[in-house]
Write a structure and sequence with these properties.
Blueprint: H1 11-14, E1 18-24, H2 28-39, E2 44-47, E3 61-62, H3 64-72, E4 85-94, E5 97-108, H4 111-124, E6 128-130, E7 134-137, E8 149-155, E9 158-169, E10 186-188, E11 194-201, E12 211-217, E13 220-226, E14 231-238, H5 248-258, E15 273-277, E16 280-282, E17 286-287, E18 290-292, E19 298-299, H6 307-327, H7 332-344, H8 350-360, H9 362-374, H10 377-387, H11 410-413, H12 416-426
Parallel strand pairs: 1-2, 1-9, 2-6, 4-12, 9-18
Antiparallel strand pairs: 3-5, 4-5, 7-8, 8-9, 10-16, 11-14, 11-15, 12-13, 13-14, 16-19, 17-18
Length: about 425
């Protein structure tokens, strides 16, 4: 692991204690949860299957909402440490048709650096980190210890079982950590595309910094942005069939060429990464002492810098639930977490679903480009509407605080601290009308 200041813990060491929170997956959702919970004084273990820093399929764009979420957590400066570059223009190409519009509030970052910086912040805040560690949440059954959740950890030939008062599963689309649990499958859209990504050298100026270029074809779309270090970040969503007879670099080249755009020679030398099918929906998001967050909840082909913002939003929303579970598990926490996700996250994916539909259907793509040329303010307005939506009801992230949760009991007691005080006084979790 090439991350100065981050020490990797041995599995025997991390399995010798009961953790308050065990976070599986060190992407934006998991790493941000580890940062916040460690700052709030909890004993946090963060694990990831990859060696850090690692490449990741991502367009690297973060909208205003995502930046506001980082500021809410006191992490605005992390963007400067991972190559923050303002994106001021969106250029779209479909066939030989071109259009360009101004953008506001969007930035491009190096995703590999971004994740690494968040992990470093988590460790600095007191969390422990294990990379190259595969995690499987164990099915405790009805006879399991209600006070904790068990997780099988594997790193090469080494293995151990760690225990935690609550587990946050943020390990991405595949939900690998949940495969031993019944009911935690995903419904995959039959037309779902495959994600591809790489960071390549930029030998020319065809894709200057400050501009996001989207090349759209019948078989998928490619997004290209210039990075702060002079390279190109390429993210794409392509039909699975297109990869059966062609390498990822060839598919990217074909889409760019079909739009009459320059194809950097370095595309062929890129270290291309892929994803499972992108568009999917989880069937279950919580169980006893377990909450699912980030891309593991579900995913829609992103077209507006929404991907990382969604993940970080679920991470912040999970903080009061994790704190409540550490204090003492209540079954209604699982129900309320799923309700909270439906209300504050999943419903808002509608806009990205519609944008993805536009670029899938040629006639709609052409019509939308014509409409945007006739009304130049329309694209910027749509991007602002999606990326600048107000964020209501975020829990405060203040060291030493106890975040409120709006569960069945909390609706009458008002906050976690009041409910716990009531339990200590009466021995009951059901408050009376006078409280």
């Amino acid at each position: 692991m090439n991350m100065p200041g981050v020490r990797e813990d041995a599995l025997d060491d991390v399995s010798s204690k009961v953790w308050d929170v065990l976070v599986v997956g060190a992407g934006p959702a998991g790493a941000l949860a580890a940062v916040n919970l460690a700052r709030l004084g909890h004993a946090v273990l963060l694990v990831d299957a990859k060696e850090f820093p690692r490449d990741k399929v991502c367009g690297g764009c973060l909208n205003s909402r995502g930046q506001a979420l980082l500021s809410h957590c006191g992490l605005a400066e992390t963007l400067e440490r991972c190559g923050r570059t303002p994106v001021q223009f969106l250029r779209m190409a479909y066939g030989r048709r071109r259009a360009e519009w101004p953008l506001t509030g969007m930035v491009a970052v190096n995703r590999s650096q971004f994740d690494a910086v968040l992990v470093e912040e988590a460790v600095t805040s007191g969390a422990r980190f294990c990379s190259r560690t595969f995690a499987r949440v164990l099915d405790d059954g009805d006879d399991g210890d209600d006070r904790m959740r068990m997780v099988q950890l594997n790193r090469g030939a080494d293995s151990a079982v760690a225990s935690a008062k609550v587990v946050l599963a943020a390990d991405g689309l595949a939900r690998s950590s949940l495969r031993l649990l019944p009911g935690f499958s995903s419904r995959i859209n039959r037309r779902s595309r495959i994600g591809l990504g790489a960071v390549v050298e930029d030998p020319g100026q065809a894709y200057p910094r400050g501009r996001l270029t989207m090349a759209v074809s019948r078989h998928g779309y490619v997004g290209v942005t210039g990075t702060a270090d002079g390279r190109l970040n390429i993210g794409a969503a392509v039909d699975a069939d297109s990869l059966t007879e062609a390498a990822p670099a060839d598919v990217i080249r074909d889409i760019l060429s079909s739009c009459g755009l320059s194809v950097p020679e370095s595309v062929s030398q890129g270290n291309w990464c892929g994803t499972p099918a992108l568009t999917r929906q989880g069937t279950r998001f919580a169980a006893r002492r377990l909450f699912v967050l980030g891309d593991a909840i579900g995913y829609v082909e992103p077209f507006s810098g929404e991907g990382m913002s969604w993940a970080m939003l679920t991470s912040i929303l999970s903080i009061p639930f994790a704190q409540a579970a550490v204090a003492g598990w209540k079954d209604w926490l699982a129900v309320d977490w799923e309700r909270s996700l439906q209300r504050k996250v999943l419903r808002e994916s509608w806009s990205c679903r519609q944008l993805s539909r536009l670029v899938r259907i040629p006639s709609l793509a052409v019509l939308s480009m014509w409409a945007c040329r006739k009304m130049p303010g329309l694209p910027g307005g749509l991007a602002k509407r999606i990326g600048d939506r107000p964020i209501h009801g975020l829990p405060p992230i203040v060291p030493g605080s106890c975040c409120p949760v709006s569960g069945p009991h909390y609706r009458r007691t008002g906050s976690l601290s009041r409910m716990l005080r009531h339990e200590r006084l009466t021995g009951s979790t059901e408050p009376t009308r006078g409280h």
